Amino acid sequence: MAGLPAAVAEDARRPGQHTWMHSIVRWLFIALSLAFLAAVLLAPLATVFAMALAKGLAAYLHSFADPDTAAAIRLTLLTAAVVVPLNTVFGLAAAWAIGKFEFRGKSILITLIDLPLAISPVISGMVFLLLFGLHGWFGAWLEDHDISIVFALPGIILATMFVTFPYVARELIPLMQQLGNDEEEAAITLGAGGWMTFFRVTLPKVRWGLVYGMVLCNARAMGEFGAVSVVSGHIRGLTNTMPLHIEILYNEYNFVGAFAVASLLTLLAVLTLLVKTLVERTGYRGH
Amino acid sequence: MSLRTPSVLPGFGLTLGFTTFFLSAIVLLPLAALVAAAGSMHLTDLWHVISSARALGSYRLSFGASLLAASINLVFGFVIAWTLTRYEFPGRKLIDALIDMPFALPTAVSGIALTTVFAQNGWIGRYLEPLGIQVAYTWLGVTLALTLISMPFTVRTLQPALLEVQRDLEDAAETLGAGRFYVFRRIILPTVLPALLTGFTLSFARAVGEYGSVIFIAGNLPMKTEITPLLIVIHLEEFDYQGAAALGVVMLTISFGVLLAINLLQAWGRRQHLRAAH
Lengths: 287, 278
Description:
The complex is a heterodimer. By secondary structure, chain A is mainly α. Chain A folds into two domains: 1-52; 57-281, Orthogonal Bundle (MetI-like fold), CATH 1.10.3720. In chain A, 78% of the residues lie in helices and 0% in strands. Chain B is mainly alpha-helical. Chain B has a single domain (62-277), classed as Orthogonal Bundle (MetI-like fold), CATH 1.10.3720. In chain B, helix 3 runs parallel beside helix 8 (139-164), helix 9 (167-175) packs antiparallel against helix 10 (180-209) and helix 12 (228-237) packs antiparallel against helix 13. The radius of gyration of chain B is 23 Å and the shape is globular. In chain B, 45% of the residues are buried. At the A-B interface, helix 1, helix 2, helix 4, helix 5 and helix 6 of A face helix 1, helix 3, helix 4, helix 5 and helix 6 of B.
């Protein structure tokens, strides 16, 4: 939505835009928008920092010294470090197949890729319990071989992967479709190999869409609550990610601790939006 | 007819193969396990789980609050999208960027923050308390949380649609003596109607499945403030995987219905668009 000023400037030159009726409607709309956003969005955001700093900066910083909090932060970073690259490779492969070729069943494939977005996070976690839980499809086999997936790191990674699955692909597919094949076909015809064409021709063209998709995927991966909550087992210091740790601290009335962790995730969200705004400024338009 | 149109570009087999494999392993196989688990139940047991009084109560809250939240977003989403596309005011760009906040903000964070703001002694809750309005730990709180997390969908679907409204038509109508409301009803509304409906459906779909932000503000009393996803989690914690799967399939079926509706609405929107272009 970066291209508005022209429309707005044009608006000001229109006849009949300066009547009192227009002014009233205009200020009413602006006031309503701001009031709504202030109540449901800005007040909660400000609360996060107000509560985190309620007992001063020292108490805020001290809450990160808690070993369980530190472990939760490490686990979240580790999970994102595994999930984001995998989903990025998937997104690139899917965008290449879907964006560069015409084949039957393409629209079904796109719908299936989008599927996790329409599914409740609780269900996204539950499916892995049904597969790898003690009574699940592979439960007995895993038990015999002493492998734990559910209530352990692999389960957390799988659930997070499921939830964030579509993000990179969704950014790249429309972008590659829109950019067309001409330049790639020219490169191939001139003798470039497939990989060289991909890295030297395609990747530079889609890089901003890729960056945005990865940042979004990362934000969702670090912030996922429902799906991870179901498969994590909530073992303190071991299988608690940052969002889960927030829940535990909050339920123990450790508000400074809970909101301190929440403040980190809020900063991550702000950073994500910042990257989005910058990427849009380069001319690449997301949706 | 061949499966694909020939192309000089390489990598079709590799990328499509990888895509299909990864999709099957991470998404399709797990979902099959869900359907199989529910399908392995005896039909009477299945019916018993999904039609129990507690389950029905949770559907009522989940679907009722989601419909209400989507409706609130329909109104405020339109107001916000209109304000952002038509008016210039200080901070417009910042507000525009902030609209995506609920997408980027983890749901647990929105949950505890909203609860704190709307609790009896919270920044906003303390002014509602004397009026007899309790938001936190009631269905109102559930609706509020769902409104927040699904808000970007309506705004972001409406913005491009509002930019497409032909201003010349509006001017012409006004020159010819049409009132502002008449212009809205006859020119603006028909253009943005597909976007309004799509935004409404997307908001609803997101809200129905939401878990993280709701459980903090809901109070979670059975039959009163217990949403369906929470009931699924309760079944899972009691190791009643089949019961959980049965409820999951009910939710999935409804999500698919909604997804189908979105696709149909978007196809309708494209047809409207083409007709307008000619």
